[in-house]
Specification:
4 helices; two-stranded antiparallel ribbon
Length: 161
């Protein structure tokens, strides 16, 4: 990758840079289905319209049904999962303060209910992290990558002007 230095008299868009993603093909793109450009006939593609700047391009992508679907999938997972974890954590804290007798009850040997619930908090954290990564990989990553490619294709022409 070549060094990018600010030169006098040149703005940032005139300074050449090496884009490692420029020649890469997107995973899952079918060459026969179109050239991969936005508006190439894919139902979830960002519609190609005449836009004049990068800000307008990003706003257009944000308004697109494909972006709204990615955002909706994210929210449908994150909000219920965060709420469930928060309730589980609060139940642990409330039980520890309001029911010390219950939390001190032995389960096996010196291990009591509070220790099991505390370890359950750690286990829940790891399980939630795994579930989030799996959900992102299966339900959002490909659509987000397609949006990224569409956006880069649309902004590439703006940067060269």
């Amino acid at each position: 990758m070549e060094q990018v230095d600010k030169q006098e008299g040149l703005d940032a868009s005139a300074v050449p840079f090496d884009d490692p993603w420029y020649d890469a093909t997107a995973s899952g793109r079918d060459e026969r289905a179109g050239d991969g450009a936005p508006g190439d006939g894919r139902p979830d593609a960002v519609p190609r319209q005449r836009v004049h700047g990068a800000a307008e391009i990003y706003l257009e992508v944000q308004r697109s049904p494909a972006f709204q679907e990615v955002r909706s999938r994210y929210r449908r997972f994150v909000f219920p999962a965060a709420l469930a974890f928060l309730l589980w954590y609060l139940a642990y804290v409330v039980a520890a303060t309001a029911a010390p007798g219950l939390m001190a009850r032995p389960v096996v040997g010196v291990v009591n209910v509070a220790m099991v619930a505390g370890l359950g908090q750690f286990l829940t954290t790891f399980l939630l992290t795994w579930a989030y990564a799996r959900h992102a990989r299966l339900r959002r990553d490909r659509a987000a990558l397609d949006l990224r490619w569409d956006t880069q294709e649309m902004t590439r022409g703006v940067a060269q002007q």
